[in-house]
Amino acid sequence: MYTGWSACYRTGMRFALILAGGSGTRLWPMSRAVMPKQLVPFIRGRSLLTLAYNRLQGLVERGGCLVCAGESHRKAILEELTELGPEGFLGEPEGRDTLSALAYASAVIARRDPDATIGVFTADHLIEPDEKFRRIVARGYDTAEQGGKVLVTFGITPTSAATGFGYLRLGPVFHGESRIVVEFREKPDKATAERWVAEGPDHFLWNSGMFVWKAGVFLDCVKRYEPAVFEGVSRIADAWGTARFAATIAAVYPALRKSSVDFAVMEKASRDPALKVAAVPLSVSWTDVGSWPAFAETCPKDEHGNALAAERFLLVDTTGTLVASSDPAHLIAALGCEDLVIVHTPTATLVCRKDRAEDLKKLRALAAERFGADYV
User: Does residue 293 have a cis peptide bond before it, meaning omega lies within 30 degrees of 0?
Assistant: First the structure.
């Protein structure tokens, strides 16, 4: 476990932090514990993590891009992102959701640079074009650095009444194109989502799960809203770079409360008169690659609407079906199929209806129970 930090950082530096700790259960069986979705090279031969890392180049100074992920994936990530270096990897002993990951990373960064500005990005989004993304995110950094207590989020124009995303209810203009968020709601019910989407993007946006904040502002929120988490990550940060770091994080981190940053900080901050939450509209092509139907949207299609992510396939009288394989020599053949997901890997093959893809967590858990950890 790396415990040092290079000396290249200066006060007031901009950092870009990629969260890459998700397990990708809805992309089973290709996403596994040993090779989670962010490391699987299924986007035109490249992984979501590589795409996310490349997208941030030029946005922050060299050495300012960090990755927070499971400690068990340290070797794989450092081999894939050769420019990252051990000092750019923040390992979690186990997953404790986004609150703990972001509090831990922010506390470690603030220990080295108390005036740091941190951009938070995820490794499961497909975003294009890169240059426009960087220009908009740079405005987010500017907004966070204007002074005062502000947390910046990036909003996506809704394309459906999705219940799996957080929503931002917009208020007055704050800075430049950013708007005050007067309500931050994580995953509303269907009726609420339909009502909000009907009001239009001038009133409601999806929360993208990407943020920018001054390290001190965010940590102050954690201290006030989640004092036990703040105390824990402070102990971890105090041990950073010392011989006791490995023992400290192993003892403290698994005991941190498991919660998302959306519930624990952003919703509370949007109601807190002591600070502001600002949304910057992110007008780019954005796909949250969190399920097989979402992944299908990234794939080339044939004339029958079949999504193609396999080298060898034979589709006869088949429509609206995703075929994916991790083995270029394996042939997927489908006859008379409609709206299916067919995914082949060396140890497990999935066949399901598209409208049941959200239930894959249950199937994955059942596979583990009946056949053991080798299948998950």
Answer: no
